[in-house]
Amino acid sequence: MRRTNGRPVLVGSASDRSLQPIALSEGAVDFNEAWLQRLVHAHPECLPVDEIEPAFDELLAVCMEFPAKRGPMDNLMMTPEGDLVLVEVKLMGRL
Fold it and tell me: How many CA atoms lie within 13 A of 52 on its CB side?
């Protein structure tokens, strides 16, 4: 897998530091798709949607697990203009 963007850096008042990847199977938090749905719902700005469609420069979280005929949608978002955005989350294992 080729990296297209740089490594994230945490910028703080004490010191700046490069963030390192962690194994999702380690630690006290259960990193699963429900966790990822909650993260996206709480922080829609983590999605680079403006790189896909510049009109979607800001997303507002509406709900998670929105019921639909073919099954629930992971995250339902909308723009301030009222455009709907559906988000399907997937965790990938190590490549």
Answer: 8
Q: Cα–Cα–Cα angle for 40, 45, 74, nearest 5°?
A: 25
Instruction: Give the span between the Cα atoms of 5 and 8, in whole angstroms.
Output: 9
Contact between 40 and 47 under an 8 Å Cβ cutoff? The reply is yes
Dist CA 27 CA 59 (whole Å): 30
- The single-letter code of the amino acid at 28 is A
Pairing of strands 60-66, 73-78: antiparallel
Full pLDDT tens readout for the chain, 95 residues: 455 566 777 787 677 888 777 666 666 667 888 999 999 999 999 998 888 888 888 899 999 999 999 999 999 999 999 999 999 998 765 44
Phi-psi region of 33 (alpha: psi -120 to 50; beta: other; left: phi over 0): alpha
Structure tokens at 37: 């749905």
